[in-house]
Specification:
Radius of gyration: 18 Å
Structural class: alpha/beta
Mean pLDDT: 89
Helix content: 10-25%
Number of strands: 10
Amino acid sequence: MRTAIVLLVAKPRRKREPVNYLIGYHHVLQSLRRHNRDVPEVVVLSPDLEETPAGADRLVRVDTEAYRAIRRTQSAFGQSVFYKLDLFRLDYDRVIYLDTDLLIVDDISELWNPNRYGDHALYGVRESADIGLKHAVWQGKINAGLLLVNRPWLGEEVFQQLLKIAVEGRSYDSGDQGVIHEFLSRPGNQDQVGTLSPGFNLPTCVRVDGDWEQFAPLAKVWHFLGPRKPWMDRPDHRWFHADTQAIWDREVACHEPVPDSLLAIEHIGFKQRMESLMLKALRLPLLPFIKD
């Protein structure tokens, strides 16, 4: 079975402050390899990189023209938040997608075991108040930070359906997760969705708003939601907690240093900042649904 680990590395098109997600990319891969043997091919999707970044096996360029018709977007990222949808175009039997704000702390190799997770086309962790995601709109939805997608839904046909949903603006969070949710909710698709244990994509907000005692011991993958990523020096977000920061610090202390080639951040220009402010004003009613 041809399997790939897939990550998206894209500079936010509209971010008021530059965020270098290549640092997150480095550490999610380091943690993946530290806790797992026989890791499948690592594929990076990117519209920005010209060469395969350190730690990856293959670079697949994202054609941004396909996304230019999308008008309803999150102000923090612009159209780049939808580039994740390119994972559905890849020619593999199984893809395991990982966001670059994840940290792997245990063995997750069962995700690429050909004898596991083959009964449904897509698997993911469902959001709930128990794991710290309390808003009513989020309940039961698949979190798109870690996805397992099998062959039935890998191909141009499914990608075009997702792109059409995005262009039509049918996304509850103005982002990729809302588009995927709309697709999964269609008649005939609901039965093709499987549920992963919360430990495969546990949001760190469980420490603040969820059942920490129940779920923290189950964590295989931590998801650092919110605008303050653990490698950043900026004011705390309400979901920040010293306990989850300590988990990050302990793990990355065992990693190789971030290569110089991944440390550069492109300046976000004045035009992009103004576009971001305008979009933020337009999206105020959506703010409770957006996690960054």
